[in-house]
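Entry 12.
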Amino acid sequence: IQCCKDVLKQGRCTLVTLLQIYKILGINSLVNALVLSTLYLNGAKQGDRQLTILGVGVAALFFFVTKGNPLPTLSPHRPPSTVLCTQALLSIALQFIVHASFILISANVALAYFDPYDPSISPDGPFHPNALNTCTFLMTSLSTVNTFVVNYRGRPFMEDFYENALFLRSVQACYAVLFVCALEIFYPLNQLLELSPLPDPDDVLTVLVLEKENDTQSNVWWLNPLIEAIGFPPTMCLLMVMDCVLSYSMELATRRCFEEDYTKTKRVTT
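Predicted 3D structure (tokens):
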């Protein structure tokens, strides 16, 4: 009988790992498509060094996320049997909406400091760091890390997030690098990632004056007072924190909703 329990535990752990990998791939594909389209429409693009470092980081996270071991006890709950179930599709849609919203917000904020008439700006030309590709790279990288953290299933089928030491340490390192870059604490790190300096409050005032003179208004005008009060880098960090909180909340609410439905159905059946 023990060997049957071991097969069930290993099988459930493998199934949960496979499902979370499919969810991560789906969300990251949608996010990357959105970012690349946004950059191309504005004549910008991401740097080769940025994409290389991001690709290596994603590969490491995929490797560490599969290191979760099954728990010694067999859970009475059953994991979803397919990635096309309602829970997985709803979770992917809600998380993508959250990530897409904050990516578009950061892109619209950065467009105020983006000169479309700069001759060096060309989607087919050489890469030149600017506020637009810097903000979108930070938000895209954060969304990618959040996707791994949020969709890591953990208990009751496998080791929890805090028990997978390699995955935990790699995620902490990724968050530390992203927030250090957003706050511009260690400028050589920004240079390594080909990030341009973020605008300062004086630039914000200049943009606000130009908008009033041209009788135009940004799509994220409601962020202007916040940027003027605390500056661009702290505002960027605030958007990053909100993306973390909301994406986790969406996944948690979806998971609890479907687990409660499954528990109620099981009670009625028994």
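Annotation: The two ends are 24 Å apart (CA to CA). Residues 11 and 70 are 9 Å apart (CA to CA).
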